[in-house]
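In the design runs reported in the main text, the only information available to the sequence generator was the tokenized backbone. The following block is the verbatim input for one such run; it is reproduced so that readers can re-run the procedure and compare outputs position by position.
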């Protein structure tokens, strides 16, 4: 069930930042009239149709340019049920056309100076540079590979400005010593536990500090969500600093939803200076999951892949996005969210592969309630040879009541609770919370055996006091985290 049904709205094209000469404006109108019906083009001016099976992704309400969100599904977009998930369509067509490897190309943040402007002039100039005869011969060649190569040669310089060296390759971290305790534990091969604490809804920090101290002996690091469900709370940065003060290592979550490229870079420099060593990049729940009055839209300047790419380059190459060099760059162990049960496992595996290439060193998955289903996703990652490049912490969320399970099943994107578990909770009646703990322990035992799993991420939101019991009963030796 979708969480929001706004009714289908007309999606306006993007308009240029500055007034263009008449000739270019007319060309832009012509381009829009042709490319709109053909590809769903929204005139972003940063054409990436080659990588997206010739479907424009700019219809995605989250403005994602590098693949689907964790709520993607075949039926419809999770934000707006009146439209399809455009990224599901792109992945589906890419597989049908055998172009799925194109989806690995990391695509840059929009160059807003080009938004709303025509791109055909650029195409013409590029064809002229390559030579009209050469291009014509390439496009009419018998070999499909040659035709594809010619198309790429026409479009590549347009979508990749000089400063952008985004690519489809894996880049190993450019350091050897672990940056954080979490990284040290994962590298040591120890089965690692992290847990999530919901930031307070007020400026009061007493409960937050109590929870941090309670979890300290049981986890390697504590995550602080970043306005989860699009509801404002104390910032993840502030909670992370409080954790550092308490001697507990934080994982600072950063949602692309609320960040411009400037805000992101500035925030991680500050976070690193304040002693934060782990960051988890995610696209974030759309603001429509929150409460009215809704804002005009989310920021939509970056997506999680672009964030990872920017932060990896800052850390490993000492460069801002605009190519300026920096001394003492932020030192962050970089993580990302993974969603084993959204859309098709092979689609998700490509999406995770891309995040790894961009800079993700660890994944914390969405809540898992089906260990066999998890294995299908892990097998897809194994086929892509990426299991040795990332640490995977499986998301385990103990269920406190049947009502909570029903809510998650129906309203939380990317989560599926199998019928047998729902029946067990129903049969347990007033003992549903105890049954929820038993289910969590069974799941931990089952996922521990799976290839590529390095630990668990406990998400006992507003039930943090259950974490010590689960860690102890699961036989996961408590070892205090040290900052
Ligand atoms: S489900 Fe997610 S990825 Fe797909 S169109 Fe909606 S917001 Fe975008």
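Verbatim output:
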């Amino acid at each position: 069930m979708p969480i929001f049904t706004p009714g289908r709205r007309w999606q306006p094209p993007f308009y240029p930042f500055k007034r263009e000469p008449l000739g270019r404006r007319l060309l832009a109108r012509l381009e829009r009239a042709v490319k709109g019906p053909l590809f769903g083009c929204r005139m972003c001016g940063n054409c990436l149709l080659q990588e997206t099976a010739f479907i424009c992704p700019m219809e995605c309400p989250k403005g994602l340019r590098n693949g689907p969100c964790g709520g993607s599904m075949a039926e419809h977009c999770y934000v707006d049920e009146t439209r399809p998930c455009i990224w599901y369509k792109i992945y589906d067509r890419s597989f049908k056309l055998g172009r799925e490897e194109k989806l690995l190309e990391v695509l840059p943040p929009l160059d807003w100076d080009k938004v709303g402007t025509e791109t055909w002039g650029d195409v013409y100039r590029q064809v002229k540079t390559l030579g009209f005869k050469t291009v014509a011969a390439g496009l009419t060649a018998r070999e499909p590979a040659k035709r594809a190569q010619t198309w790429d040669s026409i479009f590549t310089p347009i979508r990749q400005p000089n400063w952008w060296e985004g690519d489809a390759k894996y880049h190993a971290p450019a350091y050897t010593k672990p940056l954080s305790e979490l990284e040290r534990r994962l590298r040591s091969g120890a089965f690692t536990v992290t847990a999530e604490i919901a930031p307070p809804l007020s400026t009061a920090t007493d409960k937050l500090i109590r929870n941090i101290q309670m979890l300290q002996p049981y986890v390697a690091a504590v995550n602080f969500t970043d306005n989860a469900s699009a509801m404002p709370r104390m910032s993840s940065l502030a909670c992370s600093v409080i954790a550092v003060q308490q001697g507990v290592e934080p994982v600072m979550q950063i949602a692309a939803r609320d960040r411009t490229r400037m805000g992101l870079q500035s925030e991680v420099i500050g976070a690193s200076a304040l002693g934060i060593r782990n960051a988890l990049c995610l696209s974030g729940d759309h603001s429509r999951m929150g409460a009215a009055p809704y804002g005009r839209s989310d920021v939509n300047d970056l997506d999680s892949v672009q964030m990872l790419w920017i932060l990896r380059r800052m850390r490993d190459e000492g460069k801002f996005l605009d190519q300026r060099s920096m001394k003492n760059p932020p030192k962050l162990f970089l993580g990302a969210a993974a969603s084993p049960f959204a859309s098709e496992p092979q689609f998700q595996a490509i999406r995770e592969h891309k995040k790894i290439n961009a800079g993700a060193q660890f994944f914390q998955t969405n809540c898992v309630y089906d260990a066999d289903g998890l294995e299908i996703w892990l097998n897809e990652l194994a086929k892509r040879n990426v299991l040795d490049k990332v640490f995977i912490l499986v998301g385990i969320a103990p269920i406190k009541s049947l009502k909570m399970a029903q809510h998650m099943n129906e309203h939380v994107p990317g989560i599926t609770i199998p019928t047998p578990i729902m029946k067990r909770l129903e049969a347990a009646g007033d003992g549903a919370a105890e049954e929820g703990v038993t289910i969590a322990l069974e799941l931990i035992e089952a996922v521990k055996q799976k290839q590529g799993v390095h630990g668990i991420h406990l998400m006992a939101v507003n039930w943090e006091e259950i974490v010590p019991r689960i860690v102890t009963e699961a036989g996961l030796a408590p070892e205090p985290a040290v900052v």
